[in-house]
Design brief:
- By secondary structure, the chain is mostly helical.
- Among the domains are: 71 residues; 67 residues, no CATH class.
- It has 9 helices and 3 strands; from the N terminus they run αααααααβββαα.
Amino acid sequence: MNEHENLASAPAGVDAAAEIPAPAVSPMAAAIDAALAMLEDPTLTRIGSLRARLQRAREIPVHPSRQSEVAAVLEEFTRLGVDALRTDIQNTFARLPNLTRKFQALSQPPPAPDERERIVPHLRAAGWSSGEIDLLAHMLKPGELMASCDASAVRLDTRTLTRRAIRDGGRPRWFASAPGWNQQAWENQFSDGVPIPGERRV
């Protein structure tokens, strides 16, 4: 079967060539194309503005007796225009983000949140206070992960810590001898959490 026979065998009213789908454009490529199209709009650029002024000047008739002055006028315009563009480009590029660095970051999956960021919403939902969460964060060993938690304790992948153990274990050594500090003062910093089950507030 030759090419002509292939075309002839296509259903009536259907263009055989039109059946081949166009390659899909990725969202990233479409976004870059849109950005390039915007940058190419002469009305949005300094150089486009300079070109437009030159085009308007071309349409203005110059008196024959003043033709010799045209070169000097254009030389001044070009020199000042180039200086303005060069300065503007330097200032603009100094403010632009490092596009290569940003796209290199986008080429990697988003970084996983650290363990504290991951567990805080769950601990807060279980009624833990901010102070208890801070103490627990300092007690976590590198790579240690939380498996579950409730109002009484947190279960890590290697051990279980009760809220009482966290409160008592996080108390600094100098606490007992500090003037004006006592157990009640220590417990008061955990008042934004729900009471530990089975315990009365101090």
